Amino acid sequence: MHIALDIIGGFFGLIAVGSAFGKLTKNAQVMESMAHVKVPTSLVPVLALLEIAGAAGIVAGIWSKPLGVAAALGLAVYFVGAVLAHLRVKDALKNALPPIVLTVIAVAVLVLELQR
Question: pTM (2 decimals)?
Answer without folding.
Answer: 0.92
